[in-house]
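Just scan this pair:

***
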Amino acid sequence: MWQNLIPISASLCAFLLLKHPLARTRQGEGLLHQIAKKLKLAVCHVNDQTSHACNLLSLGEVLLWIDGCAEEALAALQQARATTAAVGLPSHSSLVQRLDYAIGRGEMQCKANSQRHQLLRPVSSLPTCLPTFQKVKHVSVAELKQSLPMWHEEGQPLLVTGLAKTMVTQLWSFEHIISVAGSQHVDLMSPAGQSVMWAKLEPASSSPVSDFIQSLRTDLASNASSTAGVAMENPDGQNIEPAAKRCNNSLPEPSDRLYLFDWSLPLNCPKLAAEISLPEELADNWLAQLPEGTQYHNSWPSLFAAPSGLSSGLHVDAFCSSFWMAVFEGTKRWTIFPRDDLPLLYPRYPYSLDAAFSLDVTGWSGGDGDATARVLADFPALGLSRPWQVCVEPGDVLLVPWGCAHQVENIGATLAISSNVVSGHNATEALRWLKLQGLQDPAAVEVHRHLSARLASSP
C-alpha cells in the first residue's frame, strides 16, 4: 500500500503545483503538508533499499515546494543519494540523475536562504521603506566599447542610446514585421500572476504574426501620439521625454494579455534575421558559434512584441547568460537587481534550476507607498536590496549582466529583439549551470562539452 502511495502522490503534486490554481492557495499548501506527512510514513514502511531511495526522493521533491522546508528536503535527498551509493546504483541511472538534479536545486535553495540570513545578521533593524532605485548609466554608441567592463566585469546594466538604429538594415516597425513575417504562426504566452513557471509566463495560443500585431492597434495609436513629442526640445536644448514621464505612472490592465516572447528569428524567420547586423562589441557570443544543430546555435536574436500594460514576472535568465535587448517600438520599463541581491528576493527552486519568485515589482515606484507595509511583511529583507530602474525607449539597447533578476513592464505596444550571451566573461558560471542541467537534458550536455572546449582553448 505504501509503495502505491508514492507515484499517486508524485502525480498529484505535479498536477497541483504546475497546473492547478489550488496549489497557489493556503488550501494547496495545506494539502502539500498532508502529502509530505504521508510520504514520511511511507519512507518508514519500505525495506527494499532502492524503493526507500525512491520514497526519499519523492519526499524531498515535495518538501522543496513548501516554504521553510529546504533544509529538511535536502537532508532527505542526500539520504536517498547515500542509499543509492550503498546499493551500487551507477551515476548514469535515471534515479541517481534525478536525485543529483534535485540535490542541486536543494543546495541552491539552502544557499540562498543562508546568504539572506548572513545579510540580515548585522542589521539591527530592518528597513521600513522600499529601496530607492539606482540610475542605470547611459552611454552613447561611441562610448560603448570603453564601457563594456561595467557590463561584463562589474555586473552593472548599461543603456546604449541610439544603438538599435544601427543594428538593422532598415528601421524596424510593426508594419515592417507584418510585411516580412505576417503569415507565419507564432506561439503566444500569457502572464499568470501566481505561476511558478519561468517569468510567470505560460503557453496560451498560437496566431499568425499579422493577426497578433493587428490586435495591438489601439496601443499602436497610443505609440504614435506619445512619440510625437520625443524629438521636441526644451529651452535648455534637452529632449522632452513624454514616455519617460509615463514611466512614473501605473499601467492599465491590457485588454489582450498575450505576449510574443523570445521568438527565434534565425530558426523561424531567417529573412528578418538577415537584416540584423550586430556591432563588434556585441558579436562575441559563444552560443552563436556553437556547431550547427547544437542547442542555442540559432536561438537568437529573438523577437518580442507585447500590448501596453503587460508584464513578465521577476526572473533570471537561464544558464547564467548575460543578454541585451534593442527596442524599436514602445517603451519598456525595467527593474533590475544586482546579482548579489538575489537572496534578498526570496528565490525558490521547486522544480527547475530557474528561480521562481513570489515577489512582484510591477508598478513599484520605490520609497514609501501604500503597499510598503504589505510588501515588507512578506519580504522583510527586500528593503536591503539596491535595484536599478530604467525606461528603454525606441532606438535604445539595454545590456543586462548575468545573474541579475529583472522584471519588465510594457508601456505602449512594444517591439524589440534580444539575445542571450555567453563569452569568456561568464563561461565558468554557465558551465556550472549546464553541467547540472545536463542531468535532465541531454542537449545541455552537448552544449556543455562545446563550451568547455572553447573555454579551455581561450587565452
Confidence is low (pLDDT under 50) at residues 1-8, 227-246. DSSP finds 16 helices and eleven strands in the chain.
